[in-house]
Amino acid sequence: MFLSRHAPLQPRILSACLLLGGLLGGAQPSLAEETSGNQRWVSDSLNTYVRSGPTDGYRIVGTLVSGEKVELLRTQGDYSQVRSASGSSVWIPSRDLQSVPGQAERLPQLEQKVADLSAELKGIDDAWKVRVQGMQETLDSRKKLIDELQAARGALDAELTTTRSQLRDAQAQLGEEQQQVLMRYMAYGGSIAGAGLLLGLILPTMLRVKRKRNDQWV
């Protein structure tokens, strides 16, 4: 398509050059694979003058805007004949043609890629937040369970200490009672032994006295 000889550069192309230079360079190989046949694009330099013939001696008949899509018809020397979107055939220096779309055409694709990557990143971020929240809830529940178990253990330790103290007191009391019972048994045994001894001493005497009395009566 023909424009005036001093047609200005599109602001969108300039901003794309400054902000997405790295992305443009990375996207060129994949975009180049998609092009085939005789499709060409005017290079992303300043507006390119076109001529009526394949040498610098032919007159300038207009300009092509950077990034404009054209159809390559043939090449002769340093010039290539192209057909613009308007259908006109003109000659342009071959160095001003490129086999990949210009920045003006690549920019929407790159913007879409950036939007897709941003959406994907947001999805990953949201999924990670949900996962972290789930992990935090799990940690909180486990911490609560640990606190409850520690509290129960503390109560059991206190109860065990009390039970051991009560057991020691009961054992001490039982020892005292056993000692008292033993002393009672010993006292009872001594009394019985003393009574037996006394009976052993008295009984023979009584028998002798009784026998004497019987002898006297006879």
From TrEMBL:
Subcellular location: Membrane
Keyword set includes Membrane: yes
Alphabetical UniProt keywords: Coiled coil, Membrane, Signal, Transmembrane, Transmembrane helix
InterPro entries (UniProt xref): SH3-like_bac-type, SH3_dom_pro
Signal sequence, renumbered to the chain: 1-32
Domain SH3b: start-end pairs: 37-101
Membrane-topology descriptor: Single-pass membrane protein
GO cellular component, one term: membrane
Main location: membrane
Membrane-traversing stretches: 185-203
Coiled-coil segments on the chain, per record: 107-180
Database matches in Pfam families: SH3_3
NCBIfam families recorded: SH3_and_anchor
Protein name per Swiss-Prot or TrEMBL: SH3 domain protein
Highest classification ranks of the organism: Bacteria, Pseudomonadati, Pseudomonadota, Gammaproteobacteria, Pseudomonadales
